[in-house]
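Before relying on records like the one below, remember that each one covers exactly one chain. Contacts with other chains, cofactors or solvent are not represented anywhere in the record.
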Amino acid sequence: MRILAIDTATEACSAALLFGNEVIGRYAELGKSHAEQILGMVDSVLAEAGVSLSMLDGLAVSIGPGAFTGVRISVAVAQGLAFGAELRVVPVTTLEALALQALQRGAAQVLACLDARMGEVYWGCFAADDARGVVARSEPRVGAPASVALPGWAMPGERGERGERGERSGPPDASHYAGIGRGFAAYPSLGSLPGLDFKPEDGGALPNAREMAQLGAVRLAAGAGVDPALLRPLYLRDQVALTEAQRAETKDHKRG
């Protein structure tokens, strides 16, 4: 199967081509120049593999959550490429792609977390799944770092099943989660959540089209591709900028 994947939803901009068991990828942290770079990355991976868009089986595309402009670029570019080549598209979230990085390194369950700015994080919990590659243990959410919680574990300061603060609140066999993503770098306190096994080096991780291509191949094979006209971005909040009062509150929160 030949799957092209693109992602411009976060600080990272990437494109990857999966064909057979090989992946050709391009990745860079570009700030705000994603729109100028992504098509060049696409051309580069296709040229290296010696294939054209018409030879692909489908596209995988990041639909967010992430920066509003970046998510729109990702979706619009994928739609343009897919319409022109008459390809099906597989939507993949940034959190799923992050989670797959940790799952492929041996984690059983993953908390993926990205800095959402404005004093908030995007986050979700995931596990491996044969049919979809990654399955959600909780719905993707946006909120203050203090709102992040692992299924089966007590929130910091809450009483667990034995009546003690910060202990397991779910079934006795609830396992730990690996943490990954830049949300942990922005808010280091997240790394000490009850039930979390976090390695500081994983706090620098961002989504990559490489994992999106892999998830796209699994889901396309299962019939999950959609018409590009039906592709929709995943926005977890409507507000795109802080008010003056909110900016002051966020600064005070980070100082504390």
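The longest helix spans residues 68-85.
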